Automatic annotation (TrEMBL):
Domain STAS: 19-102
PROSITE patterns in the cross-refs: STAS (PS50801)
Organism: Phytohabitans suffuscus
Coiled-coil intervals, chain numbering: none
Full protein name: STAS domain-containing protein
SUPFAM superfamilies registered for this protein in UniProt: SpoIIaa-like
Cross-referenced InterPro entries: MlaB-like_STAS (IPR058548), STAS_dom (IPR002645), STAS_dom_sf (IPR036513)
Superkingdom classification of source: Bacteria
Amino acid sequence: MSAVARPAAGPVAVPTVEIYLTDRLDVACLAPVRAVLDTAVLLRPDRLVVDMTRCVGIDAAGVALLLDLHRQLLRVGARLTLRSPSPRLRRILRISRVEQVLHVVPEETAASRRATEPTGSTP
């Protein structure tokens, strides 16, 4: 899992913070993931995106962490988005009925969005 986020000294509101999960989201990695997510929440984003493209699995502890994060963001008027979970992860989220609560953006939506975004090159 990789992320870069540093809390500011005073109240800060940023439009979007993105976190990229690069391994399983399970009980074994809960503490470091929670620390990164807590730091991201300190930035007071309007939207926190958790990219799950490279997340290979999730257990009940990971689902509980996402639900807790969702509630925490909801209390401050922010939104959690899960981006690009694999079909296997989507199935787990659907079976656990988390998909009905969390905003999940499927792979094809995220891929098509990236395809239409500017590359950042200057003419």
